[in-house]
Amino acid sequence: MKIVVVGIGYVGLSNAVVLAQHHEVVAVDLDERRVAQVNRRESPIVDSELEAYLREQSLRLTATGDLAVALDGAEVVVVATPTDYDPAEDFFDTSSVESVIASVVEHALDATIVVKSTVPVGFVERMRSVHPSAHVLFSPEFLREGRALYDNLHPSRIVVGDTGERGRMFADLMLEGALDSSVPVLLTGPTEAEAIKLFANTYLALRVAYFNELDTFAVTHGLDAAQIIEGVGLDPRIGTHYNNPSFGYGGYCLPKDTKQLLANYRDVPQNLIAAVVSANTTRKDFIAADILRRAPRVVGIHRLIMKTGSDNFRASSIQGVMKRLKAKGVEIVLYEPSLEDDTFFGSPVVRDLDEFKRRADVIVANRQSDELSDVADKVYTRDIHGRD
Questions:
Q1: Which parts of the sequence bind NAD(+) (predicted)?
Q2: Binding site: residue ranges?
Q3: Residues 121 and 204 in one domain
Q4: What is the pLDDT of residue 267?
């Protein structure tokens, strides 16, 4: 079977690799650098399993920048293009997905179009009305940045928003590529699948916000947050997972998905979803104020990335803290090896770690790092467990 995957990001590349174990896969991207890297069997993103599979496994995978050519003979097209949240429109910008669907209708009408990009609730039904001859379905992705391939090889569940033959066919393709033998499969309506994605990510954001607000309470009252979290988590209904305080939820998915779900609630009574969105702003306000209480002259920002083993810092919570500190006139220096530029939002990027440590009065780190152990007295973090 020939499969086309459009978008060489975390979602697209991990799906392409999983499917290329058994099928001919063509990955498509506008970024010529990413296309060339995939064709050289190099991963354009930091992900240990992706890097190993591209280097070591026999995959029927090629990459190109020409979508029209790639679509020739395609039976399945997986759409994994970016859908950034547009605050002006209060919805995801789905133009890239819509453009791909239109191209498939023009060049490969009988292909099954599987939307993997996160979209507003009701998007697929709208696309089906716009393109009644197309075969569009939605299959949400549940992966972690830096572990994208692992999470597709060992999926927690496979959800496909189509209850017919094409939905079952795509679920079988994902099962075929997985390493686990028993994976829950759920075939739903397309709108229900879209809601599953947004509600799942909003619950994760809710859990992050809950433990962050617990931590805020503990700091404000001089209490040991670790003890409180441990006692709360020992209730088996709550558990000891996903409970490590941070500067706020960030990354590519949670901030935009919570806002999108809130937008979808526009005519539906709610309190909790709005609170989850606003809690993230409140947490960053508190963290910045807590740092300012130390009266720093120069604040060092240690890493912009969201989590260990990732190179992505889109919408990372530490950026929000940094911008609040800059707004108060605090001098900022950054240590972020993945940055190519010498400045970031007007602040210098220091590539020598020892120099970075010398220049900063307070070093702000969303997550602890062994490389800061010699200046532990300077480090400000709310990382209790030393893990993501």
A1: 29, 34, 83, 118, 145, 256, 314
A2: 29, 34, 83, 118, 142-145, 197, 242-246, 250, 256, 306-307, 314, 388
A3: no
A4: 81
